[in-house]
Amino acid sequence: MSILTFLQERAGDIGIALQEHLIITVSSVLLGCIISIPLGILLVYNRFKWLNSAVFFIANLLQTIPSLALLAILIPLLGIGLKPAIIALFLYSIMPILRNTYDGFQSVDPSVLESARGIGYDAKQRILKIQLPLSLPYIMSGVRITTVYIISWATLATLIGAGGLGQLIVSGLGTNKLELIITGALGAIVLALLTDALLGWVERMLTKKYGRTSSATTA
Question: What is the rounded distance in angstroms from the CA atom of residue 66 to the CA atom of residue 217?
């Protein structure tokens, strides 16, 4: 069977697997952004440095847990399917987004913040109009790295019944069909490359738009 014939015959299954993979990835990364970006900002303004150390220690600890072990731990708590897969990958997404958000805010020149304070900006305005725009390259870099990793790790989600492109790989191994294995693996690779390129474009557009705005504001 040629690869083109195989793709035509299994187009429906491949489409479903791709859709499931996207749902897992997007849900995990969105949850990571919703939790990690505000948390990173809060840590910048937190006066208790021991709390910063504790938060980063926990986030880093989550990164060290093997993915299969984490999935196994979540099965008794959440069952099988999409929910435990999304929660597990969300936990993996916290550290890079959190760290890059924190570092991005810390990298803003204090003199810029002083200038903003001098023209009457309160803390909220300084965060939204100065620090956040200037931190976007850091934050988007964290999101890009996280997304690429999550796309790769999501192939393991099929082991707990969440589907995705990993289902094609596992099915190929079970039936000794190289076409399935190659399709699943290449699908994840292409998806990661396309997503990284798309997020890179979004990063450039946001940086160009909001970076210019923040610079003009403090000029």
Answer: 46
